[in-house]
Write a structure and sequence with these properties.
Blueprint (H helix, E strand, L loop, with lengths): L6 H19 L3 H8 E4 L2 E5 L8 E4 L4 E6 L3 H11 L10 E5 L10 E5 L6 H16 L5 E6 L3 H4 L9 H13 L4 H9 L8 H6 L3 E7 L22 H10 L8 H11 L17 E7 L1 H15 L2 E9 L3 H17 L6 E7 L13 H15 L5 E8 L11 E5 L2 H7 L4 H6 L3 H7 L3 E2 L10 E8 L3
């Protein structure tokens, strides 16, 4: 690292990484399932609320069908397989995850698929999941293990729409800066599984879902587009999203036609709250961004920082939020900081693509932060980290970025113009040039993003 001459700064970067890693560890999907699932004699006990051990669902099911999907699918499925007695576990158990997270599991079919844009492997896997849920009988349990990335990993478009058409629609939504809720609203109405569709297929069997949340605020209907959760959005809402984002005329004609048929009532809507199909369906939230933010808070305090929550639900355009954060930090620094301070946040920002570069929302936020820090004259010794808890930020091999007050200098020495890079959405190239990419490798979990800003006093 070219800034090794500054020992405070080097220590600060190490501390920021430790704090981030504590947040990731708090979302360990394997341990979370272990805490919530118990085999006791002939019964299976399911914890319904992580904060209240008295809230349980106990059943004597004749067979348990295991369906896991998302970036944490393998870890969750491994934990469940170790707990469920072999004679109860159906021989059609399946786990679908992104290629990087594929791990063999005894007696479970593990399938790798693409993320963030779906591929045919995901489509084939989705059809298998649909068939297996539909096969379950009364007196049996469909145990669904849901984690972030499930929407893209398990594409199951309605019959009138091809996978390519659905991918094209998702691509347009991602590029125009649509929020995760807006994207999911549209995807639910183009899918057989999302928006409660999987729960509908599992009837008359019982169903329980362990859910690892990657959505700020933990809206269960938004996590992996809510395959086991009632959906209160409509075809009208989906069309409104496409119109509001200015892409209605750009989406494929078959997508337009299906949504219009939905408004006319010619194709069924997603199942709504109160629908009878959910009478034997329950869920447990086993991990979330809020839980991980709390873990970063404790880790920062343990290292010796005064910890403050900057924002528990950080949303908005990544570069704009970065500038707001710089202004807030400047206010604190200008008023004097007596001891090392950690400002912590969690959430999920967006990026409106205008250039042709590489990067993700966390890398863009990190690059925008150092640019804003220079523009606003942010003084002192500081380190800013923005990272995805899944270890992958956008279509890159980095989890995000970790920058400091010398990052701009390193970029310029490497012949990089940070502003040009930001305008071209090429944060990856900029951060790589300054050795500021955050590389963790795939983490096997996903609870959205975490941010850490460490500020040391001038003394």
């Amino acid at each position: 690292m070219s800034n090794s001459a500054n020992p405070i700064n080097l220590s600060s970067r190490k501390n920021a990484l430790k704090i981030f890693q504590a947040g990731v560890a708090a979302a360990d999907p394997y341990q979370a399932v272990k805490r919530c699932l118990v085999a006791s004699g002939q019964s299976i006990e399911i914890l319904l609320n992580m904060d209240d051990s008295a809230q349980k669902r106990i059943g004597k099911w004749s067979k348990i069908h295991l369906i896991a999907f998302g970036k944490a699918a393998c870890a969750m499925a491994q934990a469940a397989r170790e707990i469920i007695p072999a004679h109860l576990l159906a021989d059609d158990s399946i786990a679908v995850t992104n290629y990087e997270n594929v791990t063999p599991i005894d007696n479970v079919e593990v399938i790798g698929a693409a993320h963030p844009l779906s591929d045919t492997a995901g489509l084939d896997a989705a059809l298998k999941c649909a068939e297996r849920a539909n096969r379950a009988q009364q007196g049996e349990l469909v145990l669904v293990l849901v984690s972030g990335g499930g929407s893209a990993l398990l594409p199951c478009p309605v019959d009138s729409i091809t996978l390519q058409e659905k991918c094209a629609t998702t691509d347009l939504l991602l590029a125009c800066g649509a929020t995760i809720n807006q994207i999911n609203c549209v995807r639910k109405h183009l899918s057989r599984l999302k928006g409660g569709g999987l729960a509908r297929l599992a009837v008359p069997a019982d169903l329980h879902a362990f859910i690892l949340s990657d959505v700020p605020g933990d809206d269960l209907s938004a996590i992996a587009s809510g395959p086991t959760i009632p959906d209160d959005t409509t075809y009208d809402d989906a069309i409104n999203v496409l119109n509001t984002k200015g892409i209605w005329d750009k989406v494929p004609a078959n997508v337009q036609q299906h949504l219009e048929q939905g408004i006319l009532g010619k194709v069924p809507d997603t199942p709504k709250p109160g629908d009878n199909i959910f009478k034997n369906t329950t869920h447990t939230l086993i991990g979330s961004n809020a839980i991980s933010v709390n873990a970063t808070f404790k880790a920062a305090q343990n290292i010796g920082y005064e910890a403050q929550l900057y924002n528990a639900h950080l949303t908005g355009e990544a570069r704009n939020e970065a500038e707001k954060w710089v202004r807030y930090a400047k206010h604190l620094i200008d008023n004097g900081i007596n001891k090392p301070l950690a400002l912590l946040a969690g959430g999920e920002t967006t990026v409106t693509l205008k250039g042709k570069g590489r990067g993700g929302r966390n890398q863009e936020m990190a690059l925008a932060f150092v640019i804003a820090a220079q523009q606003h004259g942010l003084k002192g010794c500081w380190t800013f980290l923005s990272g995805g808890t899944d270890g992958r930020d956008g279509p890159t091999d980095a989890a995000g970025g970790i920058v400091d007050q010398d990052s701009i200098k390193r970029m310029i020495r490497a012949g990089i113009d940070p502003l040009v890079m930001l305008d071209n959405n090429d944060s990856y190239t900029a951060l790589k040039s300054s050795q500021d990419l955050l590389n963790t490798g795939s983490t096997g979990t996903n609870v959205a993003d975490l941010q850490v800003l460490l500020i040391h006093s001038q003394s």
